[in-house]
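Justification of computing resources. Each target in the renewal requires a structure prediction run like the one illustrated here; the chain below, 105 residues long, is used simply to show the kind of job we budget for.
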Amino acid sequence: MPDLEQLAVEHAALAAESPHGRSAHLVLHDGVLRQTVIALTAGTALDEHAPPTAGSVQVLRGRVSLTIAGRRLELPAGRLEPVPQELHGLLAHVDSVVLLTAVTA
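Resulting structure tokens:
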């Protein structure tokens, strides 16, 4: 398995160089299970999208908010939160890296 801390460092640097302010890497793909490291620069957002069958987001570094129906749930580094079962997005308040776990049955 890859070292998540090293992936966080690498993808934070790639996000900083990207004109879109983000970088992602699929860490694990095992049947219906997917885990992805996503790095976002401060102020970068992932637009609202439909939820997976089940999932969670863990903040590896930085501070993000899950945006859900016009409200924000702030997540600091170290926080693990289930992905809401409604349209949602993600906003980085500072340069941040998250681990998204999704079941896509």
